[in-house]
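Narrative progress, year one. The postdoctoral researcher (J.K.) led the effort to move from monomer predictions toward full complexes, under supervision of the PI. The following entry was the first complex the group processed end to end, covering 644 residues in total.
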Amino acid sequence: MRLLTVAIFLVILAVTLMITWWAARKTRTTSEFYAAGGSLSARANGFALAGDWMSAAAFLGFSGLVALYGMDGSLYAVAALAAFLVVLMLIAEPVRNTGRFTFGDVIAERMKRPSARLAATIGTIVVNLAYMVPQMSGAGALIKLMLGVPYDVAVIMVGVGMIVYVLFGGMIATTWVQIVKAVLLLAAAIVLVSMLLAAVRFDPLALFASVEKLYGAKMLAPGGYFRHPLDTLSLFVSFIFGVAGLPHVMTRFYTVPDAKTARKSVLWLMFLAGSFFMVTTLIGFASATFVGQEVIRAADKGGNLALPLLAQYLGGGAGSLGGQIFLAAVCAIAFAAILAVVAGLTLASSGAIAHDLYVNVIHRGAVSEAEQVRVARIATLFVGVAAVLLGLLAQGINVGVLVILAISVAASANFPIIVLSIFWRRFNTAGVVGGMAAGLVSSVALAFAGPAFMHEHALFPIVNPAVASMPIGFFGAWLCTMLSRRSAAHDDDFDAFFVRSQTGLSAEHLQSPTTRGNA
Amino acid sequence: MTELSGPVLLNGTAPSPTIDAPVSAAPRTVLHSHSFRRLMSAKRRVVVPLLGASLAYTFGVALLSGFAPGLMATKIAGSFTLGYLLVLAIYGACWVVSVAYVCIANRTFEPQAQRVSNEFRGDAR
């Protein structure tokens, strides 16, 4: 069994390393390192975007939540998809048109101030680290379970993997690792769903009936997981606006040549990730039916092993060869999913540190191209090591609060400043700093005061604080904007930015040859 | 970007009266041009209803889940509940709305943005 699992792990590692080796030869410039040269097709970027979004947290987490708590798990999954409507219609095209590599680029293009870029950089790093640590600790727990290696070794393995991908292959390797993982994940989902449907004679409603019979009608109604009536709304607010503020999602739009391709890639995501999220409900119900909640809980309190256990059952059950192959394959795919997602996060974070902080805030852009690539690689190493150390520290600690924190900061700090930068003429640098500070502080305070961290002694009753912290973020942005003076030059910057964000026409393009002559 | 010079008066459009810094006349001219305003009003007409309706529906389902779990538990076919029907409809809405947006954007925004671009791109390439 273990030998088989190790073999599948090694095959996946070998494939991703070959991709990295191939990508490394095409990664010379900063544009290639951060944005794959902006040359991806809509389909490639769409698969990579879907791969980013079908993380192990979605793959294992959503189906586990459905298996143990019923409909609240299904609500989680659908919120994660609906989020992309905001990305598609408000964020993707302006980001593609105004930035080059990072979230900070968009804010800096609008505000022309290093302090505005710095605020966006802080938002990027906080969100990415809060996102990465649970992934690292999840990977550690999963690999420990599958290969029997200690947690520490497992976390270091993941860290080395992601550092190698990003360091040598940059965005090109990260993208293709993401695509391979998305294809594997979808293939696994197709196999599992066909088999579980065959087991109920292709009548999905039979699964609903069996779940009701076994665990009661509460599985088919909301309220199994959430306690407070505002919890579902707050979950939806944090996902729907938070995804639009996730820096590693924005970075994906720099890898395509134009706004039209950016749009089409979101459409790919909608159908790929959407179908996947939809079937997590069937997978969850099937594992509750065939494996049983008792067994799922015994394997992992949070239900994260519901899907692997179902795969084992469908393959022929524990101890059978088919069961072993299925279990090993599914776990190896989950491992690949984690590796790909942390690689994307590492890349976006190194962009924030090297491109935003070092090149543009500290050196005001006066850094040669070769030096920029070198600094990007050093930053990758730095981010990777930091993520490994934090992952090691996280052992045995409930890191669930960090997941909430990541999406909440994205919704409460990053989202207000990007959406106001794109659409509000009066918005200024003071507003960016104020919005970032208000959103960040309120998210952190409310997430740690909430049930995810303080359990029954929670000072704040709602799990996802975004329903309160996002309005606070917007208010901070508005207040600091209004307290500072309006300037005509700043309004002009908005005009140039707005035209560019909506049409792709930059100020340089607008200069006619004659006017440029007498500048 | 700030070294833009001299108001570029194209298409007979005068720069807005509030303008005092001639350096940025060009972006503002585009902003007030007929073609750009047509692009923006087309976008508004599509994005506001599509995004507004789909988000209102999605948040409505979230509110019902929180405040009317009993209603959501209503059986409609065997064990299948109203709640699950509403959740399935969110998937449907996401797909219909995103396809509609991408089709409209490719068919109308794209050529309109191109027109703005052709009209104002100074360095004819």
